[in-house]
Amino acid sequence: MKVKTVFVIFAFLFTGSAFAAPKSAKVVGTGDPVSDVQNVQLAVDSRDNVILSGSFNFGVSGVVIHRSVKIHGETVKAGSPVTTIQGGVNTFYSPAPVPAPEGEELAPGPVIEIMNIHFDGAQLTPINIGYAGGVEIKNTKITNVIPLWGLQAGIFISTMLNGEVPGAITGPIAIKDNEIDFTGTDHLGQSFGVGITYTSGVTIEVKGNTLRQVPGYSVAIGDLLTYENGNPNGGVEVKNNNISTAFTAPVAGTFNGAPDGILVGAVFSGKEIRNVSIKGNYIEANGEYSCGIALNMTPKATVTSNEIVVKDGHNGAGWIAAGIVCVMSDDAVIAGNHITIKPSLVSPVADWWGGVGILNVSNGGTITRNRITFDESYTEPRHSNGAIAVTGGSGSTISLNTIEGFGHTAVGIFPPGSNNLIFNNDLENFTSWRADVLFAPGASNNLLVGEGGTVLDWYLAGEPITESGNVIIGDWDTAVCEATGEFWAYRP
After folding, report:
1. Phi/psi at 39 (nearest 5 deg)?
2. Model pTM?
3. Residue 19: its pLDDT value, please?
4. Which backbone phi and psi does 346 adopt, to 5 degrees?
5. What is the four-CA torsion angle of 383, 386, 391, 397, rounded to 10 degrees?
6. Minimal CA–CA distance to 291: which of 374, 379, 355?
7. Environment class of 45 (CB within 10 Å of its CB; exposed 0-12, middle 13-18, buried 19+)
8. How far is CA 29 from the centre of its chain?
9. Max Cα separation, the chain?
10. What sign does the dihedral 193-281-334-408 (CA atoms) show?
11. Per 3-state DSSP, what percentage of the chain is helix, strand, and coil (rounded to 5)?
């Protein structure tokens, strides 16, 4: 009887001639998992526009999407969704296809739009898209996602569970104005607020979303593929999102084992991602060694006007907290960001351990007009790794940044960093423990220009002091020291 009721609603909403198939359907929730899943599946299979009204219960089932469809809930005047779907496993699921035979391409997938729905208590993920020719997810609310099969995600657009399937996910992807809250949920294995991977030739927009207490990656975009004919990805824009990560994560499933804010880059594929812009986001990286923004293999990316709060902790095995990390992302621009570094909840294992504001492990690039603030609750300047660090890269320009508070160093160049230019940074309100600017052993042929502050130019024992080739211009208090044993010490 409930299915017949749905057909009655179909008859009132169809468009076109009297003999044309109805294009729209309104489905009213019953609260019964069998009826709700059956009714919505029928509508999705046969209608272009599906309106969901009231409260639904999907139990431990889900609706499979095989065709282009718009699925919308209802909202109050303020825009908040009032349509709710309780439970579900892969609540809305477009399964990945079998890869095309060699020399052939897949047919474009369905165009999918999901809006104005509150998903609560889904298992694995409420939205799992593995085959699509375009995706828009807008104004949804996602709460209490339950991990399943080692994965927990708010919105998941990927063929990852099936491996690489070139051409399975194409067209534009837009994730806008959603609220994803993992507060109080368990987490095992991989965890994503928004996860987008293994797409082919797409343009990706992640804008205006609010993400809370995700224990893995709040936003992860990675391993983007291209068509076999070489069509490039259209670009990635992550803009104006509000992110607050989880505080602790025994099994975070991230590259550093901590909950992180935004990751864009290659993880498994080794493929570069170009045309990346990360702008205007607010990020609280709450884990002891969380990262606010991490880039990997994203040449010429721009990271601008973000507000980031990060701890300065460590895991005792090499991973440290960072506001922005840029790895193998040559010629990136990091500009106009404000990063606040707060003391960690644990004591550092060594004086030089701790977090960093901006870490550049790439060649070239510009780090300019950023403001890095060591939180006023610091009582001594030795519990962080520094404000800006270049490790192994060459040809970077570090200029016109403002560094404030107590910290280990303002700018550090670490081996084999060379040919980096450091000039006209504002260190007036910064107090260093080690030095305002330091060149570690093996860092060579760098140029420092400016006024005031302290400089340390370390060198390896037994080498001539002049071998580093670092040039210092300006009124600096310069010291030379020697690296001895495990720790660095001033030269006697």
Report:
1. -65, -45
2. 0.90
3. 40
4. -120, 160
5. 180
6. 355
7. middle
8. 35
9. 95
10. negative
11. 5, 45, 50
Among 135, 51, 35, smallest CA distance to 94 is for: 135
Cβ(61)–Cβ(90) below 8 Å:
no
Q: Counting beta carbons within 10 angstroms of the beta carbon of residue 290, is it exposed (0 to 12), middle (13 to 18) or buried (19 or more)? A: buried
Core vs surface per residue 163-172: b (16+ CB within 10 A) or e: ebbbbbbbbe
**In this structure, what token pair is assigned to residue 250?**
């025994």
As a whole number of angstroms, the distance between CA 457 and CA 262 comes to 34
SS3 414: strand
State whether the Cα torsion 422-428-431-434 is positive or negative.
positive
Strand pairing of 487-490 and 477-484?
Answer: antiparallel
Rounded-to-integer distance, Cα 281 and Cα 408, Å: 27
Residue 457: phi, psi to the nearest 5? -115, 95
117 forms beta bridges with 83
Q: Where are the domains of the chain?
A: 299-492
Cα–Cα nearest to 258, from 318, 204, 330: 318
Q: 273 is written with which tokens?
A: 């991602």
SS3 485: coil
**What pLDDT sits at residue 402?**
96
- For every residue of 118-176, which 3-state class applies, written as one string? EEECCECCCEEECCECEEEEECCEEECCECECCEEEEEEECCHHHCCCCCCECCCEEEE
Amino acid letter at 489? A
Tokens 């804010």 belong to residue: 261
Cβ atoms of residues 278 and 262 within 8 Å: yes
- The pLDDT assigned to 348 comes to 46
- Comparing CA positions, the residue from 50, 54, 52 lying closest to residue 24 is 50
Q: Is 323 helix (H, G, I), strand (E, B) or coil?
A: strand
Closest CA to 370 of 284, 308, 429, 451: 308
- In this prediction, residue 350 carries a pLDDT of 46
Distance (Å, rounded) from C-alpha 293 to C-alpha 219?
A: 9
Question: 226: helix, coil or strand?
Answer: coil
Phi, psi of 162 (to 5 degrees): -115, 0
Eight-class DSSP state of 466: G
Residue at 206: amino acid letter: V
- The answer to whether residues 9 and 27 touch, using CB atoms and an 8 Å cutoff, is yes
- Enumerate residue ranges in the chain where pLDDT < 50: 1-8, 10-20, 227-230, 347-352, 381-383, 464-465, 482-492
pLDDT the model gives residue 213 = 94
**C-alpha distance from residue 446 to each of 333, 456, 465 (Å):** 19, 13, 14
Please give the radius of gyration of the chain, using alpha carbons only, rounded to the nearest integer.
Answer: 26
